[in-house]
Write the structure tokens for this entry.
Amino acid sequence: MSDPTGGDVAGEAPGEGTGGPLHLRRWTMTTGSGSERATGSRAAVVLAAGDSQWEGTAESAGAIGALFDALDAALEEVLGGRVRLVAFDVHAIGETAAADALVELVIEPPAGASGERATGRYPGAARHVNLVAACADAYLAALRALLADDAWAGAMAAAGNDRLARVRAQAARSAARAELDADAELGSADWFNP
């Protein structure tokens, strides 16, 4: 799970059924202090696999909590709920403020999962000089491990195909409306003629 000697420990397990591994296309975070706001951090993520893409946003009192909540929100449709974080450890690999952070964590399937999908523990680990990036990579490694489990076979493809079907249907409706408008070629006075 980890390599304290300096090797990259981000999970390499591929995503399944979508034409490519699940990866974090981009993430952004804002964090700060202020007694006026109940939440101090906001996160937004874009996950992708093959032609499918999932987005999530979240607010939380802490930066890492907001990041994990945004990742959960992005994949809630895929997993049928939010995974449960059951272990989370952060270690500095070095003695300076610029030391790498080694993040190790474990997730379990969403509480609403049933049958074979309801069991299992999935570890993830990552090392990075940026603590937030290490946390994102470790969480994503654990999510990849869960999705690579035989019990979850097809979950990403089904959710990706459902989303793609909705996008294509919306595009077809828009194209049909545009086609009707183009065929109409009525002058303003034609509306009043029988």
About this structure: Residues 1-18 have pLDDT under 50 and may be disordered. Residues 155-184 form the longest helix (30 residues). The domain at 23-157 is CATH 3.30.160.270 (Double Stranded RNA Binding Domain). Helices lie at 63-79, 131-148, 155-184.
